[in-house]
Amino acid sequence: MKAPSSPPPSLDALPLRDDSGGWLAVIEASQGSRHKFKYKAAWRAFELSGVLPLGLSFPYDFGFLPSTLGDDGDPLDVLVLADEALPPGSVVPCRIVGVIEAEQQDAGERKWNRNDRIVAVAQQAHRYRECRTLRDVAANVLEEIESFFVVYNDLKGGRFRPLARRGPAAARALLRTGERLYERERPG
């Protein structure tokens, strides 16, 4: 096998959409795991950025949407509903079902920043096959997600405040804004 002539693209620079028009998500933290990984584009690798305390784990797979940027300068966050935990580094074709709009205040800061969470379903998921919008997701699932981020941020000395739950149209608008910001901030 011949070595590639150029390095592979960074995961954060992958296309946002796959060839079939679905959305792509990159997993950083697996459902049920206490380990939080953060993708380091400069390294093209994942760094262990934290370990949750015993008794607390990610309720669903968590990651980012490539070729996007949020107001915090990071790729847009995504929670992926899947049948089983997906390993960090997985690139998962998804359908977007909505967004949990939220504000976050980091430890030691006064300012609240928007830090919304896109909610998506893995295209290959059986359990969530019929899920097309947040209304199709059980209310307790959405409450678990919101509660997790409240506790997670509290443990880091910050705060997380859910604002609203919106459907796929609002999520797609957020994605379009994130794509434009990415193109403006990280050209080429």
Tally of structural domains: 1
Note the run of SSEs as H and E: EEEEEEEEHEH
Total number of beta strands? 9
Tell me the number of helical segments per DSSP (H or I, 4 or more residues long): 2
Q: Helix/strand-derived class?
A: alpha+beta
Write a structural description.
By secondary structure, the protein is an alpha+beta fold. It has one domain (12-183): Inorganic pyrophosphatase (Inorganic Pyrophosphatase, Alpha-Beta Complex). The protein has two helices and nine strands. A five-stranded mixed β-barrel has the order 1-4-5-8-6. The chain is globular. The model has no long low-confidence stretch (mean pLDDT 93).
Descriptive terms for the model:
188 residues; Inorganic Pyrophosphatase; globular; 2 helices; 19% helix; two-stranded antiparallel sheet
In short:
By secondary structure, this protein is α+β, with helices and mostly antiparallel strands. It has helices at residues 139-155, 168-185; strands at residues 23-29, 35-40, 45-51, 61-65, 76-81, 91-105, 113-114, 117-122, 159-166.
Write the layout of secondary structure elements.
Blueprint: E1 23-29, E2 35-40, E3 45-51, E4 61-65, E5 76-81, E6 91-105, E7 113-114, E8 117-122, H1 139-155, E9 159-166, H2 168-185
Parallel strand pairs: 5-8
Antiparallel strand pairs: 1-4, 1-6, 2-3, 4-5, 6-7, 6-8, 6-9
